[in-house]
Specification:
Layout (H helix, E strand, L loop, with lengths): L7 E5 L4 H12 L3 E6 L2 H11 L2 E4 L5 H15 L4 E4 L14 H26 L5 E6 L13 H21 L4 E8 L5 H4 L3 H9 L9 H12 L10 E4 L14
Parallel strand pairs: 1-2, 1-4, 2-3, 4-5, 5-6, 6-7
EC number: 1.1.1.100
GO molecular function: 3-oxoacyl-[acyl-carrier-protein] reductase (NADPH) activity
Family: Belongs to the short-chain dehydrogenases/reductases (SDR) family.
């Protein structure tokens, strides 16, 4: 089960963090994986490490997203799986947030998702098959955190987009779903500092931060042929972080 042999997959934002974890799991499941990222140096290193291909992409450019899909289809013949994972999460309080701060996050997280999904659907529809998985977050759709209102709004927006987009291709053999990570130990999370990491770890019932591969396993399931009857849905991967109604509920 969940064998991805002969499947062609793109993972945007795959150079590091959650994207790298997704790429690693899909590769181990048998897929041919193309890591797409704006960070060429790290992307090439990760691709070499995992045995994947690398393509440069700026997801804020509609033409670049379409160009990436076209190049992959020209090289590999088709596209079976898109993992739209690229995202940023800079901090800014509402009192200090600028229009540029807001636009920066939404252009990458939300508009970038739109551009990649739109382009992928053009490649998938002729084959009447496709799996699209969006990396959202628990922050925004379910929880909130100070200084991340722009990030939370973008992640909630992804799910609204996903549900309507899923309906547009549900009768064409194409599914669109999302994973919602909690706190995953990535380079970006580690940059928040030890105090933040400790605080987050204490808030998780399993008493540990997730690994990028934990998100990859959920993505692999949604990317499989066995998940054909699941679309427009989300999977929370957070070690139970959203379950307690108070800190006292964590044993």
């Amino acid at each position: 089960m969940f064998n991805l042999n002969q499947q062609i997959a793109i993972v945007t934002g795959g150079a590091k963090g959650i994207g790298k974890g997704i790429a690693k799991v899909l590769k181990n499941a048998g897929a041919t994986v193309i890591i797409a990222d704006i960070d060429e140096k790290q992307g090439e290193l990760t691709a070499q490490e995992l045995g994947c291909a690398f393509k440069y992409v700026d997801v804020t450019s509609q033409a670049a997203c379409q160009g990436l899909i076209d190049e992959v289809v020209q090289t590999f013949g088709r596209l079976d799986i898109l993992c739209s994972n690229t995202g940023v999460f800079p901090q800014a309080s509402l009192s200090e947030m600028t229009e540029q701060d807001w636009d920066f996050v939404h252009h990458i997280n939300l508009k970038g998702t739109f551009f990649m999904v739109q382009a992928a659907l053009k490649a998938m529809r002729p084959h009447e098959y496709g799996r699209i998985i969006i990396t959202s977050s628990i922050t925004g759709p379910i929880t909130g955190y100070p200084n991340w209102s722009h990030y939370g709004a973008s992640k909630a927006g992804q799910l609204g987009f996903m549900r309507s987009a899923a309906l547009e291709c549900a009768n064409q053999g194409i599914t669109i779903n999302a994973v919602m990570p909690g706190n995953i130990l990535t380079e970006g999370l580690a940059a928040q500092g030890e105090e933040y990491l400790g605080q987050m770890t204490r808030s998780i019932p399993t008493k540990k931060l997730g690994k990028p591969e934990d998100i990859g396993y959920a993505v692999c399931f949604l990317a499989s042929k066995e998940a054909s009857f699941i679309t427009g849905q989300t999977i929370v991967v957070d070690g139970g972080q959203i379950l307690p109604e108070s800190p006292e509920a964590i044993l």
